[in-house]
Structure formats: structure tokens, C-alpha cells
Amino acid sequence: MSFIWMVVRVIVVFAVGMTFVPILIWMERKVVAGFQVRVGPNRVGPWGMAQPLADAVKLMMKEDITPAGADKYLYYLAPILSIVPASLALAVIPAGPTPWARITDLDHSLLYSLALSSVSVYAVTLAGWSSNNKYSLMGGLRSSAQMISYELGMGLSIIALLMLTQTLSLRQIVEQQHMYGWNIFRAPTVFIAFIVYMICGIAETNRAPFDLAEAESELVAGFHTEYSSFKFAIFFMSEYVNMVIVSALATTLFFGGWSGPGVSYPIDATGHLQIDPTLIPMALLGIVYFLIKVFFFLFLYMWLRATLPRLRYDQLMNFGWKTLVPVSLANIFIMGIYLAVHNGWFTS
Amino acid sequence: MKLVPAIVKGMGRTLKHAIGTTFGDESITVSYPEQEKPRPRRFRGRHILNRYENGLEKCIGCSLCAAACPADAIWVEAAENDPQNRVSPGERYAARYEINMLRCIFCGYCEEACPTGAVQLGYDYKLIDEEGRQHNWQDRDDFIFTKEMMLVDPGKGKPDPLSEALDERLKQNPNHDRVW
Lengths: 348, 180
What we know:
The structure holds two protein chains of two kinds. By secondary structure, chain A is mainly alpha-helical. Chain A is built from twelve helices and no strands. In chain A, 68% of the residues lie in helices and 0% in strands.
């Protein structure tokens, strides 16, 4: 019985993740249109809402091309490698307070999601390599260098946060924030960690202004130049799912996840939250808060995309290694001092 | 570090425009075919053949337009006017006046060459589905516009861009030049 329950939850969370994709495609097209003083799609369905459906049908009708000289095995593997880690990372996101709002609760779920985000580097690199196209190869090389560099900054920025939370479990991180307030307000250095995390998250998902791997104007879409039809759609989907994951992690780590006014659970004697799974409306309210926060960050993604020009490659590397890494290292140090002062280690 | 205020300023600027577009009327989109852009007075669209006020055709079949045409798109066949049943006030009139719309480059040289102001490039750019010109549009021959397709009623032609009368009408009705 519990196995069936598990399967149902996997299907539901996967379906929700995939449902984000058409919503985001529509939202991105509308939001970017607004930023560019245009109207955006408005012919298919109300406010053009059926446009992603039309796009999907168009993509599936297209011819599925494998270029001559492509490394066929890797060429087919790359899109799978990009969508699978993206979907797996959704499993640990605590979308709501109750157990049914997440698939699984690992003790090290943050580490797990970071590990999965590293795997998606392989997808981009292999896609660029296996296409037998020099632009794709350049895109793949750029993205492997970029993602490895920015992963470092991201990991270091999260370490500063972990010193505060003392746990890697996303569930516990949210419950702490429910009790003590959002992490972003708990210590001054967390804000710096958040900025670094968000910049690295955008770079990790290869989005503008860090979309060096795609770089339409220089590399003709980079690593997915040669991909067409559904394989291209899969790359597209995983990009959006990765955006959702980065936004969901930002919400969970810094902005209190599902916590918000109206969602309140008692704290028991041992200092843990007593979450009553029978309070369905409260849990749903928590999910709504979570979604609002996630969509704010998704909007931020589009806002940045519509505003900032793409960085040059050397600027990107300089920024990653000479700014973000030292800043997050210093942030860890400052966080240590802050915690020492805060916990009274110097006075006792 | 001085990048940070620049980025913040830029983000604020784009957000302002996004809000103005989404909730205001800042959008520059013209939702064709519901809305159309106003065409300038000297717009060069589909050709028209003008008539005088009394209904006679202005064209006298002189073929100067055909001679001026750089794309060799115009074919004029002149015929003598019957004094009892005049088509044009001159000696001759255009028995056939055809413009091959696949060749025409809408340069307006025919209009400049015309001694009587008969041929003008009008304001119509919807060559396919405008009323009264139901066409097959399958053959090359379908794109040869005949005299009957281009002739307009007296006074319905393209206004002289420099005429004061037009300026007067514009003063009375500012929307007059939005859709001709």
C-alpha cells in the first residue's frame, strides 16, 4: 500500500513539475513581451494561453534529425541526462508542510539536489560534443567551464547558510524558518549568501545574462544547435524545470518555503514543530505561499533576462572566480564570527 | 562595484516599461488586422487609375508610365477615342492598361511620368483580399491587374499630398488620415 502511495506521489510531483513548463513558457513569452513593450502571444486561447500547446504540437511534428557524424549514443543520451536529474531534484523540494506535499525527505536533501544539478553539466557538455558541430562543441565547452566555476560559488554561499541552520535537510531548514523567521533576516551575511546563490543559480541554469552555452548571436544556440523535434523540447523542458528548482531552493533556503501568515503549527517540548497532516486547508495555504515565492523568483529570472546583456566569456570567468568565490569565502568567515558572537563564545 | 547601481537602475527602468505595457497602454504593438497603422500621405501602395469629375478617364494611353517603369511591369494599348462616346478627354485612351504585380517594385516612377495624373500609387497594401478583387491567385496571370481593377470613381483617388484642401479636412477631423 505504501508502495502504491509512493508511486502516486512520484507521478503527481512529476506531473506538477512538467505542468510548470507550459505555464513558464507562456509566462516567459508574456513577461518578456511586456519588458520589450510588446503584447506577446494573444491569438491562441485567452491571452494566448494555449500558445505553449501549439508550440509543443509544432515541435513534435518536426523531423527528428541526427546529424551525419554525430556520436549517436551520446547524442541520444544527452537530452535524457538533462531531464532526469532535473526531475529527480524536484523530489526533495518541500512544497508544503505535510508529508504528502513532498515525495521524499532525505537527511541530506540539499546535498542531493546540489549533486543532481552537477549532473546536468554532463548533458550540456555531451550534447555539444556528440553533435559533431563546432558551434555546439564551443557551447558545450563554455558551459562545462561555466557551470563548474559557478557551482563552486554556489556551494560556498550555501555553506555560510548551513553554518546557521546546522542541517542539510530541506524539511528541517523550512521548519526552522517557520519557528525563527526567514533565514534571509536571521543574519546580515545570509543576504550576501542569497545574492551569490541567485547569481550562481542563474549561471547554473544557463539563463541570460549567463547564457554563454546557448549564445544565440555567437554560437547559433550552442549545444542544442543540432537538436530538433522532441529532443530539443526535452532540453527546453529541463531548462525550465531547472529554473523551477533553483527558484524553489532559493525559496526554501532563504525565504521560508511554505511558511507565511496563516500557516502556524505548535512547537512541542523538544523544540520541534507539531505538524498536523489533517489540517488540509492550512497545508494548501502553505503550498500557495510556496508557489507565490517560487513564481517571484521565476519572474526575477525573466526580469534579468529582459534587462541585462550577456556577459563576455572572460568577464564571466573573472566574475565567477575573482568575485563570487572570494566573496562567499569571506562570507563564511564573517558568518563564523557572527555565530561566535551571537552564541556568546567570546564572552564565556 | 559601480556596476551594481547601474544594474539596479536598469532593472527599474525595464520594470517601469513592463508595468506600463501590461497595465497601461504603452505597448507599441499594432494588432493587425484589428488595427492598422496610419499610412503616410505619400504612401505607395496598389495602383489606382483616376477619373475626371465628369467620369472620363484621365489616362490618354501615352505609355509614358510603361517607358518609365524600371521593372517593365506596365503594358498599355492605346486606341482612338470615339467622339460620340469618349472614354478620355484626349485623342486616345488606354484600351488595355495592365500592371504585372509580380514585377512591380512600387517605385512610383509611373506616377511621376504620367502627364495627366491618371496613374497613382494608392494607399491599399492588402493586394490579396480587398473587397471586389476576388482572385484565384494561383497562376502568374492572376497577378496581372487590369484597368477595371484599378479604375476608381471620380474624387475617390489619392489626394494630392500638397493640397491645402486636404490640410483643411485634416484640421476638421484629425483622424482623417488614419485609414484612407
